[in-house]
Amino acid sequence: MLQAETARLVALVAAMCPSTHLSDATADAWHPLLADLDAADVRTAVTRLGRERSRIAASDIRAEVRAIREERLARDPLPLPDSDPDDPGRYRAELLALVAEIASGRRVRRPPAAPGGPPSHLAGSRRDPRARSLRVPCPWCGAAAGRPCTVPRLGTPLRRAPAHQARLLAAGLAEPGPGREEETRWNR
Ligand SMILES: [Zn+2]
Questions:
Q1: Where does the DNA-binding phage zinc finger domain start and stop, copy by copy (predicted)?
Q2: Which fold does the domain 3-75 belong to in CATH?
Q3: pLDDT in tens, 129-149
Q4: What is the pTM of this model?
Q5: What whole-number distance in Å separates Cα of residue 141 and Cα of residue 100?
């Protein structure tokens, strides 16, 4: 946070919480307490706090920003670093950088690396069901291994689902369940 951002924040808090005593000195006092935080996170934190309480202190904002970052980490599974685990210094540095990126919300989600991911082969393989289902022939439409599933008679590739349910089953990518083939959706 820049000094000017802290000043705007104090003005925002003063407007949101009239009962909070804020003087001209507040921005100067708050700035060193909040300077290391991301301005957008601080603004989100103040909005969240303003919905719940009529008084906001700098320590409340810090705690709320920490909660926001922890929520991001809980939502986005940590991927494995690309670095060689036999180089612990570089591996750890990349891991810490990944945590920082996810916590800040700057990181665009990408699937975690396959080994060490979710323990279940079912959950892990959901990352790219189409490529994995292509390894086996489709028992439903007859597509050979390596060939995509097609709509019977039309011969056009499926658009909504990565493959027919029977093929996903055969590839170990789905669990048996009811539903017509054409309506099989892939929402995960
Ligand atoms: Zn098929």
A1: 126-177
A2: Helicase, Ruva Protein; domain 3 (1.10.8)
A3: 788 888 889 888 888 888 888
A4: 0.54
A5: 46
